UniProtKB/TrEMBL annotation:
GO terms for cellular component: cell surface; plasma membrane. It comes from the Eukaryota. Keywords: Membrane, Transmembrane, Transmembrane helix. The keyword Cytoplasm does not apply. The chain crosses the membrane at residues 49-74. The keyword Nucleotide-binding does not apply. This is Small integral membrane protein 1 (Vel blood group). One of its GO terms (molecular function) is protein homodimerization activity. InterPro entries: SMIM1.
Length: 78
């Protein structure tokens, strides 16, 4: 039928006459762009988890400081 490294997969449903064909992009290191490689490295594995936690902590503090400053100026006595 098709070789395993082929990006096209074909499957036929048993209970109907409808066919399904899906085309997947072949991912290899030399074909991936620089941004995709960096994204893949920073978003997966232990480094990805650490980056997400760090991003969450930074986002928390940014929102906290913005809220504090906004609250200070809104509720400041005249």
């Amino acid at each position: 039928m098709q070789s395993p490294e082929s990006g096209v997969q074909y499957s036929r449903w048993d209970d109907s006459s409808r066919d399904e064909v899906s085309v997947a992009a072949v991912s290899s290191t030399e074909e991936a762009s620089c941004c995709q490689r960096i994204s893949r490295k920073l978003c997966r594995g232990k480094l990805g988890i650490a980056m997400k936690v760090l991003g969450g902590v930074v986002l928390f503090w940014v929102i906290f400081i913005l809220g504090y400053v906004t609250g200070y100026y809104v509720h400041k006595c005249k």
